[in-house]
Amino acid sequence: MNEKVPLVSVVVPNYNYARYLDARLTSILNQTFQDFELILLDDASTDNSLEILDKYKNNPHVSHLVVNEQNTGSPFKQWMKGILLAKGEWIWIAEADDLCESTFLETCVEQVQKYSNISVCMTASKYIDENGRILPQEANYWGKNKPAVSACRFPGKAYAEHNMYWNNCVINASGVLFRRSYAINLFDSSFVNMRYSGDWVFWFQMLLQGDMFEIYAQLNKFRQHTAKVSVEGVRLGNRIKEDIDVLFLMEKTFPEMKKYKRRLAHGMIYRKIKKVNDADKRIELSRYLSERLGGKASDLKLFHLNKYLRFICPWLVTIKRDRLKLYDYIW
Asked: Which of 178, 223, 167, 222 is nearest to 200 (CA)?
């Protein structure tokens, strides 16, 4: 008899998050939608993560428990490992330190099953602190201007060019359901070997293959704490180099992109570089931006000038104006 293939594969990549694992796995197992397999991955944790994971290995949802002997140094290698192990049509990378509402999967699956060619389905998120308390800061790229509709579908390539170019609109993988068949196409993508900005590349390349579906219900809880790799990358400036590589990839993908728009994005990078404390690192990053993208210090001046010119030049490109307008894509 053939084994039933689950509709969703839930991948939990873990590294030293033993203190959050029980709550995380409970939030997954208590989903109102139950047609899923659970893939547990550990990247050579040095805390008691394995002791926690071992308690769940015989759960009927668990299809794999894979423990690395050596740390990979990249969370995105673990992502791809999970993608390759997955059997479901849809994948949810449920980061080990995050949480979710019990209706996360049910809500996402209901939407992606309605439409063809959805690549990425993203819900709204809340920030939580180390103890799980809701934080007041806005977690989503639309800020306090929450859309008046419950959901919206956007054409993927346009979303990649006009939304993802400015920054990674998908703030947290834990808030996303995505199509496995498209993700497997990224096996050789540069995102796998990145440490900080690989998720930006991943979502960008996923959206080149299919559409984005945004759900404006806050179904994901994105934990904020000092141990996050992203925090380390920003503080030391290491993430900026990878961000430059991401912009290079995007501009190569859309060669017709206007020079003014590119200069604004380069100015945003220069602004990040100026905040790096290490002077030698600032020089190194400025040189890399110039070599990779042709960025100049004057791009930062243009970025600041743009903030004032936008009020007297309504046709001028700005980040807000370039992003896809919600009301154009409500179906």
From this structure: 167
Q: What element of type H or E holds 63?
A: strand 62-67
User: 103-162 pLDDT, tens per residue?
Assistant: 999 999 999 999 989 999 999 999 999 999 999 999 999 988 888 889 999 999 999 999
Examine the fold and report which residue of 225, 246, 278 is the final residue of a domain before the chain moves on. 225
Same domain, 186 and 47: yes
Own/partner long-range contacts of 281-286 (Cβ < 8 Å, ≥24 apart): 281/236, 281/237, 282/237, 285/237, 285/240, 285/241, 285/244
Q: What is the pLDDT of residues 245-264, one digit of tens each?
A: 999 999 999 999 999 999 99
Q: How many Cα atoms within 13 Å fall on the side-chain side of residue 62?
A: 15
The one-letter amino acid at 76: F
Kindly report the pTM of this predicted structure: 0.94
Together in a domain, 204 and 286: no
> Over 70: is that where the pLDDT of 230 sits?
no
- Within a domain: 330: no
CA atoms lying within 13 Å on the CB side of residue 82 = 29
Domain count within the chain: 2
Do 166 and 182 share a domain, yes or no? yes
Cβ proximity of 135 and 259 under 8 Å: no
- First-to-last alpha carbon distance for the chain, in angstroms, is 42
Structure tokens at 116: 């063809």
- Give tens-digit pLDDT for 151-167: 999 999 999 999 999 99
DSSP 5: P
Single out the residue in 169, 191, 225 at which a domain terminates: 225
Which CATH number goes with the domain that contains 213? 3.90.550.10
- Residues of the domain holding 235: 230-322
Q: What is the pLDDT of residue 1?
A: 44
